[in-house]
Amino acid sequence: MKIRKITENKKQFMQLLLDADPDEKMIDRYLERGCMYVLYENEQAIAECVVTEETPQIAEIKNIAVRPDMQGYGYGRKLIDFIADTYRKKYSVLQVGTGDSPVTTLFYEKCGFVFSHILPGFFTDNYDEPIWDGGVLLKDMVVYRRILREDMND
Fold it and tell me: Which distant-in-sequence residues (6+ apart) come within 8 Å of 97 by Cβ?
């Protein structure tokens, strides 16, 4: 397994990006300003993650996806742990906004994230089409945070 930082031609991974965020216009809002990492197994792209700086203390996972046929093997958790280790040097908090779907929220909780706050109406206000995740119609964004360093305040 290798994780590589992608600096050019990020859209070559659009299918994976769309697995996590079904609206290419929304992806375009953060893709170029974010840092992209791709996890490879046997030279095949298995998972991707895009991280942005939101404040000098907070980095945010804007998009993370594992190929559907490779889900459940720990690749998403390995990628998040890599991101946390990498970003710990500069940031005190790693946050992620997601839909209020039990499958997704449980994944983040297992990765060490805790509930922070809700952005009411985020999905209904920002997407033209309804978004379903795990049988749940997404309306509000749920924000989770993982503390990376205790020595900084956010």
Answer: 60, 119, 122, 141, 142, 143, 144
